[in-house]
Amino acid sequence: MQDAGFMNKISNLYRQFGFYYLLKSFFKRFFRHLFTMNSYYLLSNCSDAELDFERNTYIELVDDKGLEDFIRLRVDDTKLESQLRAFIEAGDCYALVAIDGNRVAGWGYVQHSGTYTFGHSSYQLPDGVCLLKNLYVHPEFRGESVGKEINVARTTSIPHGQTAIVFVLSDNKYAMRNLEMLGYQRALEINDYLILGYFHFNQINRLGSESEFAVLSRGFINHE
């Protein structure tokens, strides 16, 4: 059973990221104590255009006011409960949860303030910027556009005039394609370096406009 689970994990990673990602991951395991580098794209969407998409699930917004009732009525997964409490009780984000019948099909979060950690880096959200993070779709509902439904709901939940952003590993072509279909564009490329487990720096490349770069690059903490 453990071997089957491992092979399923490898198969899922191959479908989502491709062979090159698996090869890089293999070598990283041997050299991670000396040198690691992860590459990300920061995608942004500042459009207020309507997103026309037919939903097959009910999407429920869960914030600190409705958290306890939602957990009591909907959640029977201790991991999901722990994550909801950890993120929402911090006071800087809310969740969009997809419900199919009486089952939780998936979820994702929108962070509207505070600090976000990715790789070995930290990002302080600038004013007027909201972050999409931690999208998850239950295995039984994958391939049914649940992730897209959650992304549409997260994007349209962000107030008028604010910018939505999301960090995506550069190897995750599937996620980037889906976000770009919703109007997201690659604004920054970030190479995150860690040498000898101690020396850390970011290399940030502008892909969008100079004005957008001036705002979004402001959030990086301790970068060159």
Description:
There is one protein chain. By secondary structure, the protein is α+β, with helices and mostly antiparallel strands. It has one domain (22-219): Gcn5-related N-acetyltransferase (GNAT) (Aminopeptidase, 3-Layer(aba) Sandwich). Helix content is 34%, strand content 34%. It contains seven helices and ten strands. The strands form two sheets. It has an eight-stranded mixed sheet with strand order 2-3-4-7-8-1-9-10, sandwiched between helices. It has a two-stranded antiparallel sheet with strand order 5-6. α1 (2-17) crosses α2 (19-31). The mean pLDDT is 87.
Please outline what is shown here.
The protein has seven helices and ten strands. It has 224 residues and is of the alpha+beta class.
Oligomer class: single chain
**Low-pLDDT windows of residues:** none
Which architecture per CATH?
Answer: 3-Layer(aba) Sandwich
- Helix and strand pattern: HHEEHHEEEEEHEHEEH
Keywords:
alpha+beta; Aminopeptidase; 8-stranded mixed sheet; 224 residues; two-stranded antiparallel sheet
Question: What is the element layout, followed by pairings?
Answer:
Elements: H1 2-17, H2 19-31, E1 35-45, E2 58-62, H3 67-74, H4 78-88, E3 93-100, E4 103-111, E5 115-118, E6 121-124, E7 129-137, H5 146-157, E8 163-169, H6 173-181, E9 185-195, E10 199-206, H7 210-216
Parallel strand pairs: 7-8
Antiparallel strand pairs: 1-8, 1-9, 2-3, 3-4, 4-7, 5-6, 9-10
Helix pairs in contact: 1-2
